[in-house]
Sequence to fold (304 residues):
Amino acid sequence: MSLEPVLCKMSINDENQLPMHRSPSKRKVLGESQQQNIIPLPQEQIYKKDEKMTKKVEVEPLLQESSNRFVMFPIQYQDIWSMYKKAVASFWTVEEVDLSKDLGHWEKLKTDEQHFISHVLAFFAASDGIVNENLVERFYQEIQVSEARSFYAFQIAIENIHSEMYSLLIDTYIKDFKQRDYLFNAIETMPCIKKKADWALKWISDKVPYSERVVAFAGVEGIFFSGSFAAIFWLKKRGIMPGLTFSNELISRDEIYNSENPFDFMEHISLEGKTNFFEKRVGEYQKMGVMSGSNHTFTLDADF
Fold:
């Protein structure tokens, strides 16, 4: 049987033989349906809705866009404002720290003690820059509440002072240029510091909710820093290096404010009743626990 008579009666542009005056959107080009159905799809796959696209996203109250962020008053969160005012009242500069006696004490330390303390300072010098990177790139831009923005803005300034202090300490104690350069580039030269830095840096670009990232950086400042603060306090107990130990008091006090910044979800990672292990007169330090073997597991039942 020849197909020529049949094909002559059909329009090459109209598989369904609909009149040409019908809307083009209602006519199918010849072979269109056949081409689409070469690989048949399950019916449920065709019509299944993407749950991620339809799920309603709840916005953290502190992140809800508001033009009120451009003015300070009225204060919405008194606890955050109070923490900001405490931080401002504790402002200090590196010029207040006297390092005149430190070098003599440093030269009397054993070689392994110098190695230990220099690595602690190298960790701190790099870490404060990472904290600021997160504040500038993420937290300050995301937050919409004026008092919280004020706290973050002030913290950025304070972290700069911390970074300057640690750099000055390294510059004062380490006279060998190559060794100094090695310490200043600890993120690249020291595997143990690089691992901590990489862990912190990944949270800056992570797409997880703001609340999770806050907990992560509370861990950076409240957990990673705590052991290094304790190491410097060990020198204070020996009555040596007064400049270093005094700067440690000032910086650790600042980190209290950063770790205690009273967002609701911070209550889940603070430990009530823990006594400051490095200097009681500086303030009460809320230790949030230490990390277990897993990089993503926190425990709150450990003590230092």
Q: What stands out?
A: Strands lie at 290-291, 298-299.
